[in-house]
Batch of 2 targets.
Target 1
Amino acid sequence: MSDNPSSQEEMPVLSFLMRSLVIDNERQRERKRTVTARLMVFLDDGGVMNDNSIRALQWQRLVSEFFVPLLGGPAEAWTHANRVVADRLFEPVAWRRRVQAAPDYGSFERAYQVEWLQGMCELVGVGTPPEPACQHATSASTVPLRSLS
């Protein structure tokens, strides 16, 4: 320690600043370890952002355009099958059963998509692809269709 009084007076301030820097560094490290949640916004567009009666007709036409070259069968059969299977999937008891059976949203979505394609294939009279291929086909079919909404 110096005998200079101004130097001694500065020591408590310097000590405080050093402690603050250490605390700030610890907080910074803690923040880096903390996972921050991303903001996610889910929009319910059915009947809110577009007209479901128009979209349903577009969807049915596009479903048939997608699956006819991929799995075969007549376009009209795919259009009809989509309507029938969608009604079946959205029936409240079936919907509740599917939701309760799924441990998470990903499982729910996969089961829903597979059930949708399997049901349509059965009505169209074409073979149903194995489950991984069903998931791939339904994912590929809904990406371009969802972009229309």
Target 2
Amino acid sequence: MNGKMARDGSYIFPVVVTFKTSNRSNARVKQKVIRNKNVDEVLDVKTKIPGIPFKIKSMKSSLRKQFEAFDQGRYLDSDGTESHCYNFYDWFCKDSSLKNKANTLFRASRRFVKKLDIDQDKHYVFFKNNCPMRGPLRDDFRICDRETGDVLFTVTPTTGRVEVWGSENHFSEALYEGHSLNGFYNTREV
């Protein structure tokens, strides 16, 4: 398995990328429409996109900056900007519910990071609201490596139906399934 998703083209829609030309405060803001890649491919830092310098594309926030902003009542996306989506990469719920969901996920991700002693300067977090084929919408947070953009953990912290998936087993199966994250922390002896 090479880690790539099958490409039948049915899920490829135009993706608009907004970026600054540099990290200076007076940098120009540009937009580019990408029509031949899905959003996952656009977010993958290994994907080269003509017109968007790799250095710009890989400017990610850090957990430390995201948590500090959250403590101040601000919500930083994984790219370090504030937006209306409250660090959600994808969602199926009402826009009006994103802020409350983000509050829950920021608290849960901060505790997860602390319990597993994850380096806050080398990683970032983003959120996703999932729409399973059966059952209610479920939220998760994903801890990623800032340098590669690779997801290290995907955590669904909803009480009563907790799942932790990780790169340590190549996401082949859940590392933990249970009723609370405390059970996962106990299995890790943290």
